[in-house]
Write a structure and sequence with these properties.
The structure holds 2 protein chains of 2 kinds.
Chain A: H1 28-41, H2 48-56, H3 60-64, H4 68-82, H5 88-93, H6 112-118, E1 123-124, E2 137-140, E3 159-169, H7 172-175, E4 184-192, H8 193-197, E5 205-212, E6 216-218
Antiparallel strand pairs in A: 1-3, 2-3, 2-6, 3-4, 4-5
Helix pairs in contact in A: 1-4, 2-4
Chain B: H1 4-20, H2 26-39, H3 42-54, H4 56-64, H5 66-72, E1 82-87, E2 92-97, H6 106-109, H7 114-117, H8 119-124, H9 129-135, E3 145-150, E4 155-160, H10 172-176, H11 181-185
Parallel strand pairs in B: 1-4, 2-3
Helix pairs in contact in B: 3-4, 4-5
Classes of the chains: A alpha+beta, B alpha/beta.
Chain lengths: 219, 193
C-alpha cells in the first residue's frame, strides 16, 4: 500500500540525530512494548508480514507523529482485536472482561533464549527455476497494490541489475493477508541513483533493494 | 509526540489484559527485555568484524555464507536468519537502511537505535546518503562510491568496515573494541587506535 511507512526519498524530516550504542529504550513502557509484541507473536495468530501491515496501515498523520514503539503498540492492539484475542471494549476500559481464548503457544521465561536464538527461516523450496540470474537487467513493475507489499515506491518502474539471488522466500504480499506463503525467488536488485532520482542523483551512488520475482520484469 | 504521555498507562493496561487472559507470562517479558538489553547487541557484530580482519579463511566464509560464518561465533536467531556481509573498501562504502520499517540484523547488532527507525534516516538514506553521513560527522572522499542497501526482505545486512591503520599485530579483542555499531550500519567508521 502507498502508506506513510514507505518513506524512501521523502524530504523535510530534518537531520538524523545519533545515539549512544547501549541506549535501546527511552522509557520503561518501550521495554514492555517490545516484549509484548514478541511474546504475543508466539500465539501464532499472525505472521511477521501481517504485523508489518498493521503498522503501515496506521493513518499517515498518526504514523509520522508516533514514536516507533508507539506504532508497535497501536498495531499490536489492532492485531489482537482482529484476531479475536482481545475485545475493543476491553482495550477501552483498560482491563480484561472475558477469559482468554486458547492460543498455540505461550512463552515461558525458560523458552525465551531458545526461541529467540532459533529464529525462523523464510527460505522455502522453489517451485520453478529462477527467472533471473546475477547480472540480468530487470525493471521493477509499476504497481500500486492496496495491500501489503515490500516494493518501495521509489523503485517502481525503474531499471536495475540483479546483484544476488537469495533463493525462494515467503512472499509477504500474500502472507500478510492470510493468503499463504506462496514462496518465490528473491533477488537483490541494484539501481543507479540517477535512474531513481534523475539527473540530480549522486553519480557515485547505487541503491539495492531485495525484490521478489513477481515485482520484476525483464528490461 | 503528543500520544507519548498516555503510552505508559496504555501499555501497562495492555500487559495486564494479556496476562490475565493467559497469553503472556510476565517473567517471559522480563526475559525478552533482558536478552535484548544486555545479551544481544553490537559487541556480537564487532567480534564478527574483528575475526574477519584477522582470519583470512573466516573472511572468505563470511563472504560466501555469512549466516553460517556468523553462527560459528554463536550468533543465530531472530532477525538474523539470512545474513549477508558487505565489505567496505577504499572505493566502495556500504550503508544499510530499511525505508519501509525497521529491519535490522538483531543477532549481530541487537535492537536498532531510534534514529535507524526515524523518518529522517529512512527517507534520506536512499537519496542523500552523503548528507546523512555528514550528520554523523563522516565525510568520504568523492572517489568513494556509496552502495545503499534497503532491507526490504528478511535478508539482513552487516557492514564490515575497513580495518583501521596502525593496528598491525593487534589481537581480535583489541580490534573488536574499535568497531562501533554505526560502523557496522555504514553511518560511521571504526575508532582510530
Amino acid at each position: 500500500m502507498n502508506g506513510a511507512a514507505d518513506l524512501g526519498g521523502m524530504m523535510g524530516f530534518g537531520p538524523v540525530i545519533g545515539e549512544p550504542e547501549n541506549e535501546y529504550f527511552h522509557a520503561d513502557w518501550e521495554r514492555r512494548a517490545l516484549a509484548l509484541t514478541l511474546a504475543v507473536g508466539a500465539a501464532g495468530r499472525w505472521s511477521i508480514d501481517a504485523g508489518r501491515h498493521a503498522r503501515e496501515s496506521l493513518p499517515p498523520g498518526e504514523y509520522l507523529t508516533s514514536t516507533y514503539y508507539a506504532i508497535w503498540i497501536k498495531a499490536l492492539e489492532r492485531l489482537l482485536v482482529d484476531a479475536g484475542l482481545v475485545g475493543a471494549d476491553e482495550l477501552a476500559v483498560h482491563r480484561s472482561l472475558r477469559p482468554g481464548v486458547p492460543v498455540a503457544r505461550v512463552f515461558s521465561a525458560a523458552d525465551v533464549p531458545g526461541v529467540l536464538a532459533a529464529g525462523s527461516s523464510y527460505l522455502r523450496p522453489a517451485g520453478d527455476p529462477a527467472q533471473f540470474a546475477i547480472g540480468d537487467r530487470v525493471r521493477a513493475r509499476n504497481m500500486h497494490p492496496t495491500g501489503h507489499t515490500r516494493l518501495p515506491r521509489y523503485a517502481r518502474g525503474k531499471a536495475g541489475v540483479v546483484e544476488r539471488v537469495h533463493g525462494a522466500h515467503v512472499f509477504p504480499d500474500t502472507n500478510a493477508h492470510g493468503g499463504g506463503e506462496h514462496p518465490r525467488w528473491l533477488y537483490s536488485v541494484r539501481f543507479d541513483a540517477r535512474e531513481l532520482w534523475g539527473d540530480d542523483g549522486d553519480a557515485g551512488l547505487t541503491v539495492t533493494i531485495d525484490a521478489w520475482e513477481s515485482y520484476l520484469e525483464p528490461a | 509526540m503528543a500520544d507519548e504521555v498516555g503510552m505508559a498507562a496504555r501499555v501497562e493496561a495492555l500487559e495486564s489484559i494479556l496476562v490475565e487472559k493467559g497469553y503472556v507470562e510476565p517473567a517471559a517479558l522480563d526475559a525478552i527485555v533482558e536478552t535484548y538489553e544486555h545479551d544481544v547487541g553490537p559487541r556480537n557484530g564487532a567480534k564478527v568484524v574483528a575475526r574477519s580482519w584477522t582470519d583470512r579463511a573466516y573472511r572468505e566464509r563470511l563472504r560466501s555464507d555469512a549466516t553460517s560464518a556468523i553462527a560459528e561465533l554463536g550468533f543465530t536467531g531472530r532477525a538474523g536468519e539470512h545474513m549477508v556481509a558487505l565489505e567496505n573498501t577504499p572505493r566502495l562504502h556500504h550503508l544499510v537502511v530499511c525505508t519501509l520499517c525497521s529491519c535490522y540484523p538483531w543477532t549481530v547488532l541487537g535492537l536498532p537505535p531510534t534514529w535507524y527507525k526515524s523518518p529522517a534516516y529512512r527517507s534520506r538514506a536512499v537519496i542523500d546518503p552523503r548528507g546523512v553521513l555528514a550528520d554523523f560527522g563522516v565525510t568520504l572522499p568523492d572517489s568513494t562510491r556509496i552502495a545503499v542497501h534497503d532491507s526490504t526482505s528478511e535478508v539482513r545486512y552487516l557492514v564490515v568496515p575497513m580495518r583501521p591503520d596502525g593496528t598491525d599485530g593487534w589481537d581480535e579483542d583489541r580490534l573488536a573494541a574499535l568497531v562501533t555499531r554505526d560502523s557496522m550500519i555504514g553511518t560511521g567508521v571504526p575508532m582510530s587506535p
